Each structure stands twice: as structure tokens, then as C-alpha cells.
Amino acid sequence: MAAFETHTWQSRDGLALSARDYRGDPARSTVVCLPGLTRNARDFEDLAAAIAQPGGKFGGRRVICPDLRGRGLSAYSPDSATYNPAQYLDDTLLMLADLGVEPFVAIGTSLGGLLTLLLASVAPSRIAGAVLNDIGPDIDPAGLARIRGYVGVAQSYPDWDTAARALAGAQADIYPDAAPADWLRLARRMMREKAGAIVFDYDMAIAEPFAAADGTTPAPDLWPLFDTLAGRPLLVVRGGVSDILSRETADAMVARHQGAQLLTLPGIGHAPTLDEPVARDAIARLLGQVA
After folding, report:
1. What is the mean pLDDT of residues 212-220?
2. pLDDT in tens, 81-111
3. How far is CA 216 from CA 64, 141, 209, 211, 278, in A?
4. Are 23 and 5 in contact (CB under 8 A)?
5. To the nearest 5 percent, what fractions of the chain are helix, strand and coil?
6. Is 71 exposed, middle or buried (0-12, 13-18, 19+ CB in 10 A)?
7. What pLDDT does residue 216 have?
8. In sequence order, which residues have a C-beta less than 8 Å from that of residue 95 and are 6 or more positions away?
9. How many DSSP H helices and E strands does the chain contain?
10. Looking at residue 212, what is its pLDDT?
11. Is CATH 1.10.10.10 the classification given to domain 5-151+203-287?
């Protein structure tokens, strides 16, 4: 695993938050990797190391990978209502200020992609480029219903091998070509050891506000936020069988954004890991367009 420093900062409501800081060329735009709903900074550990590698095809850039509140090394909130996109936005803006990050390329998976749109809407001049991983302004209700079915359901396993087999059983349709070693690596990204058991590495209370938004209230129009990315390099990554980002929405995104690129990964569901070789190549090409 590549070396990184652990950076901590404090939210406005007093939580200690954490991020991985992979040091790279300070003269180049930083990359900020934003994880999905139940995920954490470890999701990007291989990609971040590759981007930060001096002399590599990504340009040896600095990479920041935060744990959103309630995930990974960041503190759990005593108020589950703060597990919401507006709060994540505020936490992230404080992190960027604390680290002195100005122009940056955002790589956002799922919730992290929505957070990318929010960042672009409030600080468009700071976004040098973006990768939206299996997320867009229109979200498929079927995928949201599936996610609501498992988020916040506490599970534990006696050892890592059992955890990896359980993960493979639950997500084989998302990563059909994954080998046992891949499932173990995914399990170690998504879970942690606690009191002699293997458990998912997030506060189960993140499900409470997510479950409350059960589709009875009309979803906000996110297309104006997406439009704030105009004029910047953009890569849209879609799992070919994603139940979150439809083919129609992905096509509409690239049609609306001149110069945007769409990468579809056949057979993969929500969401691609970005460890796929073709995804790495596409990200390298996007970074090649950014100073």
C-alpha cells in the first residue's frame, strides 16, 4: 500500500473527521476522491496510490480521500439527521480549506458523485475536472429501493474469509467476474474488526435520513447542478447493468456536456470499483487534460 498521511479536521458541530492524504506534485491540481453511501477512503486505496505515484501515467498528483462522517476513521454523529448531503458538503469544504486545496479534480462514486455536483454548484471555479462514477442527475428508483433494503442492517462475521464469501453471495451480480481474492479485498475495504467480529465500517444510523426520503417527496432537480460542470473535462463511468444510473440518463449527460466522455463497463452493476483497467485508462486521459 502506498504511503499516505492521515489528516484530521473538525466539523462545525464538533466531530473529528479524517482523510487520507497521498502526497504528489504540489504544482498540479489535486484529486479528491469521494466515496459512496456506505463506503470510505479505502475504496480508493489502489487508485489513489496509482495517481500519486511519481512518474506514473496519472502524473503523480496529490490525492485526498476523506471518510465522510460516520464512516471509517471519522467520528459518528450523535444526531443522525446530520447524515445528509448538505452536511457532507459543509464538512468537505472545511476539509479543502484546512488542507489548502484550491483547484481539484473530483472523483465521486454514487453519493460521492452527488457531492461532486454540490461542490460544483457552490464553488465552480475550484473544479478542474470530474469523474462521476455510476451516478447522475436522475437516479433509478429501483436502485434506491434496493439500497434502502440493506443500508443500516447490522451484520457480523466471525472472520474475513466468511465475510468475503457473504459479500460474494450478496453482490455476485454486481461484480460477476470477481475472484475470491477480489472479494476479500472488497470486504477489507467495506468492513472492519470490532469486538472480535467483522462488521461493516459505517454508523448504521446513516440509514435513518436515507429511509425517510422514501420517494413520497419529489426528488430535487439535479440537472442545474450538473450544468455547473460545463467547460471542464468530464468522465461519466457507468456499470453496464447499473440499477442507479440508466443508459438513457448517461447518454443525456454526455449529450448535454460538450466534450464529456462516457465509459460503460459491460456486466458490472452499481458501482464500478475504478480498479478496472479501462476505467484507469479513462481517468488517466481525463487527468491529462488538467494542469
Report:
1. 67
2. 999 999 999 999 999 999 999 999 999 999 9
3. 36, 11, 14, 11, 38
4. yes
5. 40, 20, 40
6. buried
7. 58
8. 7, 9, 17, 19, 64, 66, 101
9. 10, 11
10. 67
11. no
Q: Check whether the bond before 271 is cis (ω within 30° of 0).
A: yes
Q: How much is the pLDDT for 3?
A: 87
Instruction: Give the DSSP letter of residue 210.
Output: H
Count, residues in the chain: 291
Taking Cα atoms as reference points, which of 168, 210, 173, 218 lies closest to residue 190? Answer: 168
Q: In Å, what is the CA distance from 129 to each residue of 90, 104, 145, 188?
A: 20, 7, 31, 29
Which 8-state DSSP code applies to residue 101? -
Residue 162: pLDDT band by 50, 70, 90 thresholds? very high
Of the chain, the percentage scoring pLDDT greater than 70 comes to 97
Q: How far is CA 132 from the centre of its chain?
A: 9
Chain-centroid distance of CA 180 in Å reads: 23
Residues contacting residue 154 through CB under 8 Å, at least 6 positions apart: 199, 200, 204
